[in-house]
Amino acid sequence: MHAELDKLVAGLKEFYGREAFLFEHDLGERTMTHRLAVHIERQFPDFEVDCDFDRLGPRTLNLPRGSIVSTDDHLGKSVYPDIVVHQRRVPNNVLAIEVRKALNHQPIEHDRQKLRALTDPHIWFAYWIGVLVVLGKTGVTASEVFVSSQPHEELSQFLARRLIEAGIGGA
After folding, report:
1. 58: CB partners within 8 A, 6+ apart
2. Distance set, CA 139 to CA 9, 17, 22, 166 (Å)
3. DSSP state of 67
4. Quick one: DSSP state of residue 14?
5. Cα–Cα distances in Å, from 74 out to 79, 135, 164?
6. Sign of the C-alpha dihedral, residues 49, 109, 28, 15?
7. Binning pLDDT at 50, 70 and 90, where does residue 156 land?
8. Whether 100 contacts 32, CB under 8 Å
9. Which of 3-7, 52-56, 68-72, 104-108 has the lowest mean pLDDT?
10. pLDDT at position 69, please?
11. What is the mean pLDDT of the segment spanning 114-118?
12. Which long-range contacts (CB under 8 A, 24 or more apart) does 15-20 make?
């Protein structure tokens, strides 16, 4: 899991090195998410990197019963992870990433709930790792790693250290 998180850090570092315009002009979260996905994709040459990907084969990814209601679709049930690293044709789901701008005042719990659902090992489409990143103007202001439907403290600390070492953490 460390190797995948290191690749994420490399993608984030490239993103911050090349995409200052997005922050200078306060562009939207979806624009930032797309541009970040472009940089992450370079780090995972054997995988596809998609934004708002809600499928595994013909099936739609849905939130488990009893979880919070999604705001992502008109039915309130589909899950649209901001960025995923996966192989589309086979259930090889490596990384699900939720991206937030630091100035987003919506409750962060929705993003955490999505990552809990997406990494739940009891659900057949589970992603191996879920990551929440909060993008500040000069670096990542907060991050959290989820494994097996739970926040993973050791990996969260590892990611935070790597972001600081790359010069893009703790902003």
Report:
1. none
2. 11, 10, 13, 10
3. S
4. H
5. 12, 27, 39
6. negative
7. very high
8. no
9. 68-72
10. 42
11. 91
12. 15/39, 15/40, 16/138, 16/139, 16/168
Residue 66 has pLDDT above 50, yes or no: no
Whether the Cβ atoms of residue 26 and residue 59 lie closer than 8 Å to each other: no
* Residue labelled with tokens 């929440």: 132
DSSP 69: P
- The strand pairing partners of 17, in sequence order, are none
Q: How many CB atoms lie within 10 A of CB 46?
A: 8
- What are 89's two structure tokens? 């044709």
Closest CA to 139 of 110, 102, 109: 102
What is the token pair recorded at 11? 């993608």
| This prediction's pTM | 0.89
Q: Apex CA 85: angle with CA 104 and CA 101, to 5°?
A: 10
> What letter represents residue 139's amino acid?
G
pLDDT at position 102 is: 95
**Residues with Cβ within 8 Å of residue 115, at least 6 apart in sequence:** 96, 98, 130, 131, 132, 144, 146
Could you tell me which of 55, 72, 62, 12 has the C-alpha nearest to residue 36? 12
